[in-house]
Amino acid sequence: MARLVEQRKDLLASMMRDGIYEAAVAVMTRYGMEGTTMDRVAEEAEVAKGSLYNYFPSKLDLLKFVHDKTVEPMEQRAQEILAEEIPALQKLESLIREWFGYLDKHRGLFNFLFNDQVARELLLDRKSSGHAKAVEDVATIVRQGIQEGTLRQLDPMRVAWLLFGAMREIVEGQLSNNETRPMINLTEEVLDFVLHGIGNGK
Amino acid sequence: MARLVEQRKDLLASMMRDGIYEAAVAVMTRYGMEGTTMDRVAEEAEVAKGSLYNYFPSKLDLLKFVHDKTVEPMEQRAQEILAEEIPALQKLESLIREWFGYLDKHRGLFNFLFNDQVARELLLDRKSSGHAKAVEDVATIVRQGIQEGTLRQLDPMRVAWLLFGAMREIVEGQLSNNETRPMINLTEEVLDFVLHGIGNGK
Amino acid sequence: MARLVEQRKDLLASMMRDGIYEAAVAVMTRYGMEGTTMDRVAEEAEVAKGSLYNYFPSKLDLLKFVHDKTVEPMEQRAQEILAEEIPALQKLESLIREWFGYLDKHRGLFNFLFNDQVARELLLDRKSSGHAKAVEDVATIVRQGIQEGTLRQLDPMRVAWLLFGAMREIVEGQLSNNETRPMINLTEEVLDFVLHGIGNGK
Amino acid sequence: MARLVEQRKDLLASMMRDGIYEAAVAVMTRYGMEGTTMDRVAEEAEVAKGSLYNYFPSKLDLLKFVHDKTVEPMEQRAQEILAEEIPALQKLESLIREWFGYLDKHRGLFNFLFNDQVARELLLDRKSSGHAKAVEDVATIVRQGIQEGTLRQLDPMRVAWLLFGAMREIVEGQLSNNETRPMINLTEEVLDFVLHGIGNGK
DNA sequence: CATGAATGAGTTTTCATTCAT
DNA sequence: GATGAATGAAAACTCATTCAT
Prior knowledge:
Four copies of one chain form a homotetramer. Chain A starts with a helix and ends in a 6-residue tail after the last helix. Chain A has two domains: about 55 residues, Arc Repressor Mutant, subunit A; about 140 residues, Tetracycline Repressor, domain 2 (Orthogonal Bundle). Chain A is built from ten helices and no strands. The mean pLDDT of chain A is about 85. In chain A, α4 packs antiparallel against α5, α4 packs parallel to α8 and α5 runs antiparallel to α8. By secondary structure, chain A is mostly helical. Chains in contact: A-B, C-D. Chains A and B meet through α7, α8, α9 and α10 of A and α8, α9 and α10 of B. Chain B binds a DNA duplex through α1 and α3.
């Protein structure tokens, strides 16, 4: 019985955290990192400021939560792709497509997720940032591709960084141009670039 | 004679500005943008807080100065390379090499120069951010390469973003790994990636 | 029930505002406008500096509040007097008496209300300064008196300024002499001066 | 001989003080009391800021000097008028005329001379403000007028305050209306008001 | 547990005054 | 004496965090 009460409590707390999460995302999207104050989050969440502290010990913890919660599903999906039994090239395409789809949602959080100093700082003490993990995933695929003979023998980590960066940048270009078309359409183009480069071969 | 006194004064002022610049860079490197307060800069520079305002009318002006002073020589160099009468591929290599050499100095400012939201904001009213300009430079080279037939017919701007991003990311990877070897060594590798991609040809 | 809670809150907020008002008046009286800092007000009110900003968005707003709260009842009263159906001379006497009574309270604020540049500036965007309004009120009475034939045909506005100034000055004289007798006793005398001047008739 | 050197020094110092005086007046007129900083005065005087302190130990001393130097000639003139052997009424008219003429010059300093808290504070330790002295002068004239039978038997000091206030206020009215016609034209009107009041006699 | 007022350290900026040159 | 850079004590305002109700 106490067990049941316990569960109910956990459930409620979890819902609260989610509500605050949504609010935080909204505020971050609207005001940017600098403008994200606990006041605004509380107001957006329609909760008293003090209540935030019942669910998150500090602002930093809230930010970490937002980060994790946003990155998590993407990482989940990446793991699934990695686990499939398909050629590296297909995995790569799936992953890129997935990323773009993911970034089409969360546009507002892009800076927070990838660029911002704060993000970086709050990740300092994490085992490994989503960012780094993503790069690692690519490296794994590259290794597979090399074994399969479909990819050149290059340093997998280096290649992963390059690939990831190319993708990230193009997203940023789109965002800074206020381009609203879905970024998922860029998948082919990016894949082409990554596989064949820009040189006109022989 | 008055001329000489004048010069001496300018020199001193210039030295102060440089000292403050150094201090600001140190603080930014150590504490990040968020943590860069005038207090800390003053302390680092071993000057009174008020003295900063004898050389920079506001914090924003100081930041602009730091940015310009850091970015300007690079832009200069880029223009020189663009103006040379050599094939696009050579320009590209020169540019990348230059960038890496440049980033080897200024490691601490990398985030300020390329990643930070604040940096972006304070550049909003500048002619055009160094970032955007750099991408534009690459696009120019790509256009030349396409005409020369050495580069594939791809959207030059898109390619520029991709290339720039790849490079930026690899730098970031190096930095976050606390890799201390000079980044300039990566030039070949990046160029190879960009030109041929990672696919194993046919 | 929620209604009750709401009311209690409003009441408390109102009390705080009043407390801060008192503190501000005390500080203004003691240190003058120049010396009225938010720090001092906070200290006087025995609240944290930050708390002031929970009740007044800015220092200017606090000053406006002080001004309004002090001036409003007087303006109210003036309007009542103007609206009465009595001869101009009676209105004039009433108004002057009211003013003196009013100034007997608020002695400390006299300079803030009538003399200070800052006060004037902060009233610039108000409908119309209490000062100007008071003069206007007198002019209205003078016009009535002229019509009734009890006052000479003089420029009403000019007369209003003269009258108002005479009164203001005498108050100031009293204050600077640290004269503590109620100023309301001066009503007759001022009225006599205003009506008959100091000349000995023919 | 040393005497001569001494004199030359005094003369130079005196000239410097006068130059700074002019500059201070210009700044006060242009920027108001709040905006009168030592920096601006120095710039206006085309002197280094530090030099100001060779001639005035502090800002307050400079302000006192400005005040005195501005008020002095007026007081001088008032004394002369008082000393003349003419009826009180004529003295009164002369004095008022003189005041208006005086205020026509020094418009920019009006607030500093008569209204400002700062002015008040810096006069606190003076034997007697120019303001108070002026009132005293009027009282003297009133006493004479009473003896001569041309003025009613009223409290001379009170009358002096009233008269002075009326005049001051009308000046202020002119200034706040940005009325640029010379105020000296108001002499008759004010005198009329003061002598006969606004009442329509019997 | 919810609330939101209270807190106060921290931020940018100003400016009278000092002092080495 | 002249200079003006250096100083640092205030000033207005912000906001993460606490805590009484």
